[in-house]
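Design request, tokens follow.
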């Protein structure tokens, strides 16, 4: 029972991390069809924002240094969101409808951002010390569930609920859904699609920044932190169905569960290979993913 509980929690934990990473990409890739290879560097930006705030709190507010992480989450969202907005305005908006050019351009941006991080913070990875209130774990049926993993799981749930409410209960969210269903019709109805694109790109980048802040709880971060997760993020988005929030959630949790299951009888590398093969086979059967996006466009 203890082993079953631990494996189930590990599956949820891996899935929640993948979900946080892929949420932002689900918007940029789903709405605009942009293959953003710099998405990983938005994750890196959020991680380094957390590192800088840890240093600032330790130096200037030592009595409240345990609260730095609560400040780092919105700060990482804002910094990564502003980086994404700047990239969309200066580069991506001029390359819509040219996926290969967009892929190469964003890959170039990712290389520049990685080099900028090496110049500012150095090439070695840096360690972010978790706040004291996240140390330890919760004992359930003899198993210890780390508070860090539980916090990431709760953060993923909070992000999904917040995004769902934004898409369904606000005017900005309804504009995003309208553009995803039919961009020409949305433009005819008076929606400024270019503004929606920019804000959506900023939202997706901001969510990647939050994921980067969460990743600092799991280990050291460095200039190449985001590149380790970019492939997994694309797999989650494609498997779930492009532009589908529910599909992204199901795909992230499913990939997390299969990763843990396959690693039980093999190594981590073999487990990832088996998961990739399973996804390829599934997409051969259902190319649109778990949940296909409904549009008003005729095939």
């Amino acid at each position: 029972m203890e082993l079953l509980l631990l494996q189930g929690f590990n599956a949820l934990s891996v899935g929640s991390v993948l979900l946080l990473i892929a949420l932002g990409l689900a918007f940029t890739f789903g709405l605009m069809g942009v293959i953003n290879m710099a998405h990983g560097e938005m994750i890196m930006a959020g991680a380094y924002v957390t590192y800088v705030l840890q240093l600032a709190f330790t130096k200037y507010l030592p009595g409240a240094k345990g609260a730095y992480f609560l400040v780092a989450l919105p700060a990482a969202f804002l910094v990564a969101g502003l980086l994404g907005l700047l990239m969309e305005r200066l580069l991506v908006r001029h390359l819509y409808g040219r996926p290969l050019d967009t892929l190469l351009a964003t890959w170039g941006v990712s290389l520049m951002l990685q080099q900028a991080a090496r110049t500012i913070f150095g090439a070695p990875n840096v360690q972010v010390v978790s706040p004291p209130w996240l140390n330890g774990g919760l004992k359930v049926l003899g198993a210890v569930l780390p508070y860090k993993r539980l916090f990431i799981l709760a953060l993923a749930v909070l992000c999904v609920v917040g995004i769902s409410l934004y898409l369904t209960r606000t005017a900005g969210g309804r504009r995003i859904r309208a553009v995803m269903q039919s961009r020409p019709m949305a433009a005819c109805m008076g929606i400024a699609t270019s503004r929606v694109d920019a804000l959506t790109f900023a939202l997706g980048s901001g969510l990647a920044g939050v994921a980067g802040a969460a990743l600092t709880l799991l280990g050291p971060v460095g200039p190449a932190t985001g590149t380790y997760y970019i492939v997994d993020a694309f797999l989650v988005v494609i498997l779930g169905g492009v532009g589908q929030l529910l599909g992204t959630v199901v795909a992230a949790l499913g990939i997390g569960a299969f990763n843990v299951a396959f690693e039980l009888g093999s190594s981590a590398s073999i487990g990832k290979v088996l998961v990739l093969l399973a996804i390829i086979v599934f997409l051969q059967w259902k190319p649109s993913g778990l949940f296909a996006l409904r549009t008003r466009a005729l095939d």
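Comment from the thread starter after seeing the answer: thanks! The CA atoms of residues 26 and 243 lie 5 Å apart.
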